[in-house]
Amino acid sequence: MKTTTKLLSYLMLIVAVIFLFSTCASKNGSAETAKTGINIEKRSLILTIGASEKLNFTLSPEAEGQAVTWTSSAPRIASVSNDGTVTALDYSVRGESRFTSSPATGTANITAKTADGKFEDTIIVTTTTQGTIDILTLPPMKDQFSSYFLIGNIFNRTDARNNEIVNQRLIHHFNVLTAENDMKPEYIAPSRNSYNFANADRMVNSAIASGFKVHGHTLLWHRQNAQWMTSMTRSSKENALAAMKKYITDVMTHYKGRIYSWDVLNEAFPDSVTENDDWTQVIRKAGDSQSPNPWYVSIGADFVYEGFLAARLADPEALLYYNDYNLDTIGKATMVRNMVRDVNARYRQEYPNERRLLIDGIGMQSHHNLHVSEAHVRRSLDMFRPLGVKIAISELDVLGQGWGDFSRSGGSGTNKQSGSSVTNDGIKDQAWFYNELMTLFIENADIVERVTWWGVTDSQSWRSAGLPLLFDSRGRAKPAYYRVIEALSQ
Ligand code: XIL
After folding, report:
1. 424-451 per-position pLDDT tens digit
2. Hey, which of 153, 154, 155, 180 would you mutate to test ligand 1's pocket, going by the most ligand atoms within 8 Å of its Cβ?
3. Per-residue pLDDT at 23
């Protein structure tokens, strides 16, 4: 009895062991078969909204030659095309998502299956508003937009060394540069008739040696002025006119042949102007909330014509620009239109043999936020078009929030990126607004000759708290970058 029981339990043990062994083996076996049938190269993928990536896979001998079909468990989060290209979406179609609180991100299972249905493999795709792809691995923006306009950015002293541009991000994507600060009067004209061109020269020469065009910024302005210019408000008209003309002539002669286009006059009009104003009366004067334009105060509205004329005579090859912000507003746009129209008409009258306009172009700075409307930017472009001028989008950035939220959270000049109040939705809406703008610029590419961003990465921006640029602080492409590129195929 005892022996039989013992024998029985031994037998049971052996059966159990065999059973266990065989299930393990078959599990292993089936797993191996599935894996070797079709195998997606990656196990998981994190994709920035707007970005696409083609998934690679291998087929084992038993599945060879079979067609593969792709499916997504959540096609509104991440879609997949017949060739296995996954695209991260944002739960909505163009336009729908603006200023809504639809979820920005999620996950989707992407499955590849062989035609006979025997083999499949699945990976998880997570979508995010964060950047994932490094700026240097992306195709150069300057090449992608080359049939439309120049693609520009700003540069600073540290970007230029040993007669070349050393910032690879600038070299990779851009073909025209604007000095962020170093060509403003406060830097190059410490006192009247004495110049400090050393830094600006190093920058300009390096940019040219590295194959960039250079845009000059800026000759006449009410801010970042040299002290002697600011005090021109107290000068006689004759003295001020002579000083202004000499300044323009000296600086433009110094850079003659090296500067492709110049902002001759920057931000002449205050924000309060309305469309029925007389432009000659409303240029920034004493009492302006920022500060007066010293040249207007001492010379009068004639300083505009005189300044542009001096610039034309100093370097006839250079394109001459008037540059301003908030040109989406009807008041400022109308003042600029009227001023350019009148100044160019006077030039035509005084120089009847000249074929060119005196003011060649209008620079629309385009420091935007999410409450700016594309329709208003379009309205201004339509208003400027009949003038026959060129348009430069000269200082483009778009806050990932409205102006109110931005100023409440710290505003300009601060580097509060870590404490930024920009939301995921803000990042998405910013991307769509960039898409609308680029689509509009492409539509108007016959007059838009340059699109310059005011910075490459958010952390480098003068409005960094609003995360206004295409690349994040680590230099990775944000949804905005992908929507800018998307405008090319719309
Ligand atoms: C800004 C620079 O980006 C800052 O570094 C500087 O402190 C202030 O000026 N309009 C212009 C630019 O024409 O020159 C300004 O640049 C931004 C607004």
Report:
1. 888 989 999 999 999 999 999 999 999 9
2. 180
3. 43
CA dihedral of 321, 326, 331, 334, whole degrees rounded to 10? 30
Q: Flag residues of the chain having pLDDT under 70.
A: 1-36, 91-104, 411-419
pLDDT value at residue 15: 52
Residues ≥6 apart with Cβ < 8 Å to 344: 357, 358, 359, 387
CA of 135 to the centre of ligand 1 (A): 24
Q: Which residues are catalytic?
A: 267, 395
**CA–CA separation, 417 and 89 (whole Å):** 25
Which atom of ligand 1 is the closest one to the Cα of 154? 3
Q: Within a domain: residue 450?
A: yes
> Of 445, 454, 442, 405, which Cα lies nearest the Cα of 426?
405
Exposure letters 41-53 (e unless 16+ CB within 10 A, then b): eeeebebbbbbeb
DSSP track, 74-91? -TTTEEE-TT-EEEE--S
Q: Pick from 128, 156, 181: which residue ends a domain?
A: 128
Q: In this structure, which residue's CA is closest to atom 15 in ligand 1?
A: 180
CA dist list (Å): 431 to 83, 89, 404: 26, 12, 19
pLDDT at 411: 61
Same domain assignment for residues 113 and 188: no
Cα(360)–Cα(51) distance, integer angstroms: 38
pLDDT of residue 246: 98
Atom 9, ligand 1: residue with shortest CA distance = 181
Alpha-carbon 35 to chain mean position: 43
* Spatial distance between the Cα atoms of 452 and 384, rounded to a whole number of angstroms: 19
**What distance in angstroms lies between residue 100's CA and the mean position of ligand 1's atoms?**
32
Q: Which residues lie with the beta carbon below 6 Å from any ligand 1 atom? A: 180-181, 266, 365, 395, 462
> How many angstroms separate the alpha carbon of residue 461 from the centre of ligand 1?
10
Quote the pLDDT of residue 287. Answer: 87
Query: For residues 436 and 98, is the Cβ–Cβ distance under 8 A?
Result: no
Q: What single string gives the DSSP state of each residue in 224-257?
A: S--HHHHGGGGS-HHHHHHHHHHHHHHHHHHTTT
Domain count, the chain: 2
Mapping DSSP to helix (H, G, I), strand (E, B) and coil, where does residue 72 land? strand
pLDDT, residue 94, reads: 47
pLDDT digits (tens, 9 = 90+) for 120-138: 999 999 999 999 999 999 9
Q: Output the pLDDT for position 420.
A: 78
Residue 261 buriedness (CB in 10 A; 0-12 / 13-18 / 19+)? buried
Rounded to the nearest angstrom, the gap between the alpha carbon of residue 185 and the centroid of all alpha carbons in its chain is 26
- Residue identified by tokens 């292993």 is 28
CATH code of residue 88: 2.60.40.1080
Q: Assess whether 332 and 281 both reside in one domain.
A: yes
Separation CA 310–CA 302 (nearest Å): 12
